[in-house]
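Tokens for chain A. Residues wanted.
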């Protein structure tokens, strides 16, 4: 079972710890608003090469989606491939009441994921790998 991190716990951890937030929502939703400091990595862009990105080297990773459901599945898969504490954000972005940023970062998530990010597995479902 994947542990869940509450929005309040995440806000505290962001201030104190080496934690990465991975927002798996679609790029348009991410651009409209996301947890400040989160990286946008939709499930169809998760590939073995994406796991070389800086966020994948964090001691702790919290996966955020829309309402806290699909992030559990992605967190489970990441837990099989990464040596980090991985959890799902309880309630997803909808429950987040901390700092919110908007827009795309200067360097898009696809650029940070390696050369095969654009050709990642796209079978019509969003299960990574």
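Reply:
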């Amino acid at each position: 079972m994947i542990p869940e991190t509450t929005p309040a716990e995440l806000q505290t951890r962001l201030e104190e710890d080496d934690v990465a937030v991975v927002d798996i929502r679609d790029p348009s939703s991410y651009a409209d608003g996301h947890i400040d400091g989160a990286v946008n990595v939709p499930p169809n862009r998760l590939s073995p090469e994406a796991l070389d990105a800086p966020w994948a080297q964090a001691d702790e990773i919290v996966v955020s989606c829309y309402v806290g459901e699909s992030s559990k599945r992605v967190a489970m898969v990441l837990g099989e491939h990464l040596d980090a504490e991985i959890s799902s954000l309880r309630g997803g972005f909808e429950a987040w009441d901390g700092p919110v940023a908007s827009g795309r970062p200067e360097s898009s998530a696809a650029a940070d994921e390696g050369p095969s990010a654009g050709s990642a597995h796209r079978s019509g479902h969003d299960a990574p790998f």
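DSSP finds five helices and seven strands in the chain. Residues 106-127 have pLDDT under 50 and may be disordered.
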